[in-house]
Design goal:
Length: 247
């Protein structure tokens, strides 16, 4: 996939940070949220029972589709991050702040601007240096999350299963002894699995299949009975940058 150098720079930083925060997770690029369609998660970290999705907004991007992407990604991820270039931030001030208190950079989008409870989902790039003050500011400086507290969302079962291909759904039907045939359609198998499996079993099924699926750009597959491979180095772009940019 062709990417700008600006996007690849942020992507490399995101991948490096995810590897630090989530050792043993498989890093996948351009993960489709419904098996097929237009909404793709730029970078996904897939564990045995959790998925973290990251949407990247470089300085050349616009935030027009962020509403749609935010809704779609939160249906299939346990945690979603927006990693955005500092160009997309604007200064925010509360009315009661004193004049000597500096404004706080916040993502300039209605979903996040002035919404203090959403700051944990924002990673500002370049990552600003941390200080005791910045740890308590909703300005995207932390580049972190608390897995015990913030991975408590349970994805929508049918939306989660829609990420799987027909062959993967058939494999999970066989594993869980859910009736299906070679003529069973994806919607039929999705309904059957959502009805017969617990939420935990659905999560394990989807994560298992995505961890072992072949992708154009991803870490090596991780199979259920195989040990987790050693950490992967930062990946380079698979294709040349946009025309007109330096190679």
């Amino acid at each position: 996939m062709t990417r700008s150098l600006d996007e690849q720079e942020i992507r490399n930083a995101v991948v490096a940070r995810l590897r630090e925060l989530l050792p043993g997770y498989r890093i996948v690029h351009e993960l489709n949220v419904a098996g097929q369609g237009s909404n793709r998660i730029d970078v996904a970290a897939i564990g045995a029972e959790h998925i973290v999705g990251v949407e990247i907004k470089s300085r050349k991007d616009v935030l027009k589709r962020l509403d749609e992407q935010w809704v779609a990604f939160n249906k299939v991820c346990h945690f979603v991050v927006v990693a955005a270039h500092e160009k997309h931030f604007a200064g925010f001030r509360e009315k009661y702040w004193t004049e000597d208190r500096p404004s706080v950079p916040q993502l300039n989008h209605p979903l996040f601007f002035s919404k203090w409870n959403h700051d944990k989902h924002i990673w500002r790039y370049p990552k600003p240096p941390e200080s005791e003050w910045s740890k308590y500011r909703p300005d995207g400086t932390s580049w972190s999350f608390d897995r015990l507290r913030q991975f408590d969302r349970i994805p929508h079962a049918t939306k989660f299963l829609e990420m799987l291909w027909a062959a993967e759904l058939q494999a999970e039907c066989r594993r869980h002894h859910v009736s299906c045939t070679s003529r069973s359609t994806r919607p039929d198998m999705i309904r059957a699995l959502a009805w017969n499996l617990t939420g935990k079993e659905v999560t394990h099924a989807v994560c298992r299949q995505l961890r072992q699926r072949s992708f154009a750009e991803a870490d090596a597959p991780i199979y259920p009975d195989h040990p987790v491979p050693a950490p992967q180095p930062v990946q380079e772009p698979l294709s040349l940058p946009f025309e007109g940019t330096p190679a």
